[in-house]
Amino acid sequence: MPTPLANAWNRLRYTVYAPLYDRVAGFGPQRHRAVELLDPRPGERILIAGAGTGADLPWLPGDVDIVAIDLTPAMVRRTEARAAALGMRVDARVMDAHALELPPASFDAVVLHLILAVVPDPQAAIHEVARVLKPKGRIVVFDKFAREGRPASLLRRAANVVTHALFSSITRHLEPLLAGAGFVVTHREPSLFGGLFQIATARLRSAPAGERIEAPA
């Protein structure tokens, strides 16, 4: 679990970033593609973890039940404002992704956009996501990850000293993180900047036997 100092730093820097966030991290086409892959269904309950300014809301259908959480109150206020402008009913709350104040097995799907490379303890966060998902629950991830099966390069690790301090890590590996929480990757594709950003879907391992799993890109 992260230290209070780590969470305080994230809350401070994203309070500062909030007014500019949509200009630098809007990523509309990529968020749209990710939600399309998630394939939300009418009546489902969906959690947006690390909702930021609510940039995913325009791509989610109006017939799902949305809970949007973020550590930073300034971000949550912007999510609320965006939901109101879109005419959407969204339960937006200030909450730490490492310790979700939500009941077990209460969501059909979780949106994880630009959070797993940001949170101080991604393992704790993804285990919390697994806890609140229903059996056979699914997730979609859009974020920055290193190539699987090999350590991050020396250059990438050097750059990570700066990027991690300013906004997020660029050296984390997605598949071991998901596997450790009981997820199996069902789809993965490169997104931006030569594959630095990637989109992946996954579901808990309770998925039906024989379900087709696509090879990661």
Overview of this structure, please?
With 217 residues, the chain is an alpha/beta fold. The chain has one domain (4-204): 3-Layer(aba) Sandwich (Rossmann fold), CATH 3.40.50. It contains 7 helices and 7 strands. The protein has helices at 4-17, 21-25, 28-38, 73-86, 122-132, 154-166, 174-180; strands spanning 45-49, 65-70, 90-94, 107-113, 133-144, 183-190, 197-204. It has a 7-stranded mixed beta sheet with strand order 3-2-1-4-5-7-6, with helices on both faces. It starts with a helix and ends in a 13-residue tail after the last strand. The relative contact order is 0.14. The model is unreliable at 207-217 (pLDDT under 50).
Quick overview:
By secondary structure, the chain is of the alpha/beta class. It contains seven helices and seven strands.
CATH superfamily: Vaccinia Virus protein VP39
Rounded mean pLDDT score:
90
Which CATH top level class fits? Alpha Beta
Describe the biggest sheet? 7 strands, mixed
The CATH topology annotation reads as Rossmann fold
Strand content: 15-25%
The tally of strands reads: 7
Q: List the strand order in the largest sheet.
A: 3-2-1-4-5-7-6
Order of helices and strands: HHHEEHEEHEHHEE
Protein structure class: alpha/beta
Report Rg.
16 Å
